Amino acid sequence: MMIDWNNFTPWTALAGGALIGISASLFILLNGRIAGITGIIGGLFRPVMHDAGWRVAFTLGLIIAPVIWLLFGQLPEIKIDAGYGLLIIAGLIVGYGARYGSGCTSGHGVCGISRLSPRSIIATLAFMGTGFLTVFIVRHILGA
Amino acid sequence: MKRRFGNTAALFFALLSGIIFGLGLILAGMADPAKVLAFLDLAGLWDPSLGLVMGGAIAVGLVAFKIAGKRSSSFLGLPMNLPTSRIIDKRLVIGGMVFGIGWGLVGICPAPAFVLLGAGSIKGIVFLIAMLIGMGLFELLESKRK
């Protein structure tokens, strides 16, 4: 294993992670809800939307975050190498899989592990595992 | 109408939590799919940043969820909606594995997809729309299963 020291950003990673942790903490302690995007969005697909407000509000917060960031400076680089076809396929897989497994990086990965939930630890190992494997196959076997 | 949308404080803090979450993702570099893929590429030039993002978030979250676990209602007086399921089944593992494949293909997971929308990334928006269709497809197939 070779660490990419030029692009490794430990301090902003830790600080950004802490902000994500603060967000999840505020959300559970004040709203009594899990900051898991898959679950938050999933609830909006239900026929009875008695609790749409907070779901929309949290999602709106995610969407306007880069706009708020832009008030103070430039956004960091966003680089997406994938083409549109692959983005559509991956999007469908991510949406379906995350709902089927009841959560994604935020719900299982951050909140679930913070709760020391065995379920979330297993789910996180599952998606991290296939995430690593997929990149390995794509980059080092298929050579894309 | 009031009941449907909950009280104003709850909405405000939901919005604030979303904003802080999004800012955290941007600061951590996790709104950049290339940086996420650099973490998932163990055999290439490896960027461990994502691991520290998770570590930082969990370190803070551990304290909050410890407190939350001892309470039956939130500090705003709302019910504490902590997940109760402890079942580790095929759905959990397969769903996670499927999600991981999509994540590994492009480096985008659900939360950053919404940040990419706000950042005006066309590719991010295309992914987001497909992801929402994927979630809708799940609901459709689930409703047929029952």
Structural summary, described in words:
The complex is a heterodimer of chains A (144) and B (146). Chain A has one domain. Chain A has six helices and one strand; from the N terminus they run βαααααα. The two termini of chain A are 20 Å apart. The relative contact order of chain A is 0.09. The model of chain A has no long low-confidence stretch (mean pLDDT 96). Chain B is mainly alpha-helical and 146 residues long. Chain B has two domains: 82 residues, no CATH class; 62 residues. In chain B, 71% of the residues lie in helices and 1% in strands. Chain B is built from seven helices and one strand; from the N terminus they run αααβαααα. Chain B is globular, with a radius of gyration of 18 Å. The two termini of chain B are 30 Å apart. Classes of the chains: A mainly alpha (144), B mainly alpha (146). At the A-B interface, strand 1, helix 1, helix 2, helix 3 and helix 4 of A face helix 1, helix 2, helix 3, strand 1 and helix 4 of B.
Shape of chain A: globular
Biggest interface goes to: A-B, 117 and 122 residues
- Which of globular, elongated, flat, extended, rod-shaped describes the shape of chain B? globular
Total discrete domains of chain B = 2
Question: How many helices of chain B does DSSP assign?
Answer: 7
Oligomer: heterodimer
Separation of the first and last Cα atoms of chain B: 30 Å
Note the topology.
The complex is a heterodimer of chains A (144) and B (146).
Chain A: E1 2-3, H1 10-31, H2 37-42, H3 52-72, H4 84-100, H5 105-114, H6 118-141
Chain B: H1 2-5, H2 8-28, H3 33-40, E1 45-46, H4 49-69, H5 90-106, H6 110-118, H7 122-145
Helix pairs in contact in B: 6-7
Give a short overview.
The complex is a heterodimer of chains A (144) and B (146). With 144 residues, chain A is an all-alpha fold.
